[in-house]
Amino acid sequence: MANLVVTGTVPGTILENNRAGDWVASLTLSGAAGALEVALTGAGAAQFTATLDAARGRVTITPAILDREAFPAGADPVLTFGLAVRFAGGWQDSGQQWSVTLAGIDDTPPQTLGFSSGGVVLENDIGAEIGMLLASDPDTDAAQLSYSVPWPDAARFEMVGRTLKLLEGVDLLTEGGSEIPVMIEVSDGRQSAAFTVMVKVLNVTDEDDLPAPPPILPPPPPPPVSPPPPVSPPPPVSPPPPVSPPPPVSPPPPVSPPPPVLPPPPVSPPPPVSPPPPVSPPPPVSPPPPVSPPPPVSPPPPPPVSPPPPLPPPPPPVSPPPPLPPPPPPVPTPHPLAIGETLHGFTRISTDVVTSLHMVWDAERIVTGPDHLTQIALTSGEMVWMGPVTRIAFANGAIEFSGSSDAAEIVRLYQTILGRAPDPEGLFNWVEHMQHGMSLAHAAEGFFGSQEFISRFGGLTNEQLVVNLYREALGRQPDPPGLAFQVAALNGGMSRAQLIANFVDSPEAAGKFEGSHPGGVWVRDSEATFVGMAYDAVFDRAPDATGLPFWSQKLASGEMSIRQMVEAIATSNEFQARHAHEDNAAYVASIYRSALEREPDPTGLAFWVDHLASHRMDRVDVVMLIGISDEQKAQFSHHPHGDAFLG
């Protein structure tokens, strides 16, 4: 037997839902010349795969996709395995074992909620306790879950720990004999879910019943009519007093006689008139000389008549006035979604979260105003308004408004370290790593080798680094106590990556982000996007409400690869009805039209048909290579107008 010695490093912890490259063990074989293959042994061997590089004498161990919830609750499971090497003479065990602890992460919200006791209340019991609730969460202990009652049910109910009760001074009179739905939100500190529980109200009193109307009685008989009293005679009329005679009238005074009329004075006779002088006879008059007749006068010739001046050209026709512009469209009145309300495919499931089966490109624009009221205008012309929320979840991603979300922290990490916003792919990749357990400090460390980081932070002293972090992360100069504290932390051994994470994750930085990003940040969901692309390619439609979460969960958990999902979809009745009757050319053309919205070019069509006919490809390969091609991905990266979308 060979003198086999195995050395190397096997990380002691692995996070659930790990991605390729997150966890890798590398072992070196000594004295293993002629090794043919390797295999893992032990109870945990099935969870890992070992690969031999015989030329270099190395063994690489990679894990399967591990789900913490697939193991019993309680302490994290420990996966133990050994290594065996096969030589020409047979298998040889290395005699060594390694143990790896599978650590869970919070990747699922609470799943169920119900009454563990109670659930019944008397209608007249003011402020009564109704019952004890208990929720389940696959990756969070029940004792760590918190419960709350959102509006409008919060007007009558409240949670005290796990106990649902009526508010002080509140009863349920008039609702006896019925069951009332009450919405409860359950949070594990990272994710939340809303549930409805039914409260049974017992009818135990009639004090809330309407009283019977009073009996209608006949009207009382009219009272007897009394005879009128006798009429007294009028009092005697006294005679009028005697009238005194009028006083005597005095005679008028005597009238004086008029003065006498005097005769006119005598008229003097006129003076005598002298006779006129004699008149001399007139002198004789000579006859006038003869008058010669005037010469005949020739009439002057008439002046030449000038032609009339030309008429001015007619005025140009008057253009009709331009048409009046159409009246502006009416301004829609905002009506924010209420909790539990659904409108145009959007549902507000809780105070903080709105969900929708729309793909994000079904919207033309998504705008959030300074009042944190978000308007979503769909390409179909419909409009949806929603009040302040922390998350709007579309079928293929979400807009995150909270400064404490993974997306917000990655945006701040880029701005702090690199002085710029992340590109969409960078944002998506880092957020996905954080959602699968990567710490913010680990993410920060991933930037240290970049030239952008070195040019901004390379070679700084601890104090210079802290001053720069105050300026870049918080937008201000450090206060003396804060500066001293942070420098002391670095001098005491805190890593620079952890210090950067502390600044980026601080409440001050989160609040600053929310103020500067009222429209939130869009992060796509990779699994849902792949499901949407597959449905678009084979069915030419969006996924339905059942199919999208089903296939997305299969991909996210690692239970299926993308190809396995397409293979499963291809067995459906809808796929068979749509494509089973098509020959290869018709099938390829159908996938082109559905996925790429165009007809295939002749060269491309001939290529695909030839590969199908020669069995170098099957129909699932065509969906994979056309339906999930770069051209299709570019179409699926389209997004509406809005501040949430980077790039």
UniProtKB/TrEMBL annotation:
GO terms for molecular function: calcium ion binding. It comes from Teichococcus wenyumeiae. GO terms for biological process: homophilic cell adhesion via plasma membrane adhesion molecules. Residues 211-335 have a biased composition (Pro residues). This is DUF4214 domain-containing protein. Pfam families: DUF4214 (PF13946). Residues 127-217 form the Cadherin domain. Residues 206-339 are annotated as: Disordered. GO terms for cellular component: membrane. The lineage of its organism: Bacteria, Pseudomonadati, Pseudomonadota, Alphaproteobacteria, Acetobacterales. InterPro entries: Cadherin-like_dom, Cadherin-like_sf, DUF4214, PBS_linker_sf, Pistil_extensin.
